[in-house]
């Protein structure tokens, strides 16, 4: 039974050992109640609607939906759920996309364990809990890709041809080629493979 005024947390993390460690750590706190765990993004989305937690603590990369996908859905559906990401990705591009999706906590897995609970409290108070150096980098190195360019480049990076990308996104092959040409120019690289590699390194995909 949940005690009134406790922070009700749902944890989404595909690595069972990490998920269990996060849950065990938070259950040591008297004002935090871990009400559910999810091993992938689709399960997390269902559990969000069923359990209606106060806060979602999620990794970025998971099967099904990523943590960023979940944050965007929460924002789009206007669910009253705070989102904090805990990840190994200390990349400005990921943080910038997370902030755009309404995420107010961005924590690195190598941060001291005692910082986690206090970060979640800060998020629930309406503040932000974000590594300051990473936050500075996010604003000094903005993401040059728009959403459609990101879709096209992600599929190109997965090895799809222009015709396959066109069919997937319901575009003409000429439009896809124009997008790829624009992306390559923006990123100042030689081809689509280098563009996808650089974008992933920066956290833009």
UniProtKB/TrEMBL annotation:
Pfam family, one: GerE
TM helices/strands, residue ranges: none
One term of GO molecular function: DNA binding
Xref: CDD domains: LuxR_C_like (cd06170), REC_DesR-like (cd19930)
Residue ranges constituting the Response regulatory domain according to the UniProt record: 8-124
Location of the HTH luxR-type domain: 138-203
PANTHER family, A to Z: TRANSCRIPTIONAL REGULATORY PROTEIN DESR, TWO-COMPONENT RESPONSE REGULATOR
Name used for this protein in its record: Response regulator containing a CheY-like receiver domain and an HTH DNA-binding domain
UniProt organism field: Solilutibacter silvestris
Phylogenetic placement of the source organism: Bacteria, Pseudomonadati, Pseudomonadota, Gammaproteobacteria, Lysobacterales
């Amino acid at each position: 039974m949940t005690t009134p005024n406790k922070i009700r947390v749902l944890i989404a993390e595909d690595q069972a050992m990490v998920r269990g460690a996060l849950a065990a750590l938070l259950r040591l706190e008297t004002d935090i109640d871990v009400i559910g765990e999810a091993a992938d993004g689709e399960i997390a989305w269902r559990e969000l609607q069923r359990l209606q937690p106060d806060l979602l603590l999620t990794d970025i990369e998971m099967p099904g939906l990523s943590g960023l996908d979940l944050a965007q859905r929460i924002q789009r559906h206007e669910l009253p759920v705070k989102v904090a990401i805990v990840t190994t990705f200390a990349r400005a591009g990921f943080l910038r996309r997370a902030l755009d999706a309404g995420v107010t906590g961005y924590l690195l897995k190598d941060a001291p364990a005692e910082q986690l609970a206090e970060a979640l409290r800060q998020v629930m108070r309406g503040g932000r809990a974000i590594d300051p150096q990473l936050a500075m980098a996010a604003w000094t190195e903005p993401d040059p890709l728009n959403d459609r360019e990101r879709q096209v480049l992600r599929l190109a990076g997965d090895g799809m041809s222009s015709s396959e990308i066109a069919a997937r996104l319901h575009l003409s092959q000429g439009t896809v080629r124009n997008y790829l040409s624009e992306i390559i120019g923006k990123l100042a690289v030689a081809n689509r493979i280098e563009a996808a590699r650089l974008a992933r390194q920066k956290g833009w995909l």
